[in-house]
Amino acid sequence: MSQESQNETGKDGFIIRLNWVDYVTLSSVVTTWISITLTLNGLTSAAMALLFLAMLADAFDGILARKYGTERNFGRYLDGFMDVLIYLVSPSLILYTGGFDGIYSLFIMAMIALGCIRLSVFNDIGNIQESDGLSYLGMPVFWSIPIVGVHQLMTYFVDDFWPNVMLAVGIAAFGFYMIRSKPFFKFTSLAQILSITLGGFLLFIGLQFHRSMDRSLIEVILTALYLIWPVIVGGVLHMIVVSKDMLQWLKIPVNVALFGQNKTLRGFVVMPVFTVIGFLSLVPIEIWLKANDMTPVLEGINVLVIGAVSGFLYVLAELPNSFLKRRMGAAPGETPERFKIGFILLDQIDSALFIAVGYGVIFGFHWTVCVTAFVLSPVIALLVKRILYAARLKKTKT
Question: Contact at 8 Å (CB) between 325 and 298?
């Protein structure tokens, strides 16, 4: 066992002690898994959008590791396994399910094989130092995302034949240069990384919206707002309980070491109950819609179940955020100074993401409604938090 491994195992009974950058790397498991499920359900543009987000996390983990001195062999190996998921397995599935099959499957297999060779070499030697800074040895595997993305855009406008032929040529060249012993440019500018990854995400999510829109945008937005309302009700009532320190007998920390003192069983009990109340407030509207020969938004859904599940997901989603803050040394209720803006953003989107996924996966709402709810929820939450702050029911505006 290497000295590095000996220093990081044994003390807590696990085979490795993860640092906070490792969790950034592992976030790609979530984005690639969602991408794969979207692919299998025929939503290939949305799947591509998720891969651009995974690409963003992959870019940031190396930058953060170098900036804060957390580089180690394990991190490079973990990053390599994530790269297989992001840049080889997921794009290959998108291509195969989209008609790049038959004889073209040979090109997919070649890309995976040569990509694994390229990643194995990277795990062995890492980046190389050139006169103008760090570079890659061999074309990096992340170019698979732009290459597959261009192919997806071409198939949107023309028949599959020519896009597939051009992609086969592109993959052949890509595979050759991945194993070619030649330095390749490494993106280091934050502006470049954000413009490529977020630009790609917005482009393909917009394309999926255009493909999937079976009703007006206004209708989608109104449905999303309708589903956000009960969660807002639950959140406000929960905040009143917290600010007034009610139900103290439920203030039992979930795990002080992992999440701090503020994450208690009280939230897991009262938030589902209050969100149920929020959904019950919609029952008169549901009855009115049905009486006027319109389809109720919650038709076939038990309001008690969706309320309890949504409230539980809201509280559950806050645990990873609290875990990261504790690992960075922030006191309960405080935000770390490092990446403060990032944590403030995470505070707004964590619960919104879990609930939006829950609406789609568990209750079957159309993905356009779920994405719209995810986008609108943080904006509405910030407004509500400012109102609660002004009413002295919350200590901070965010």
Answer: no
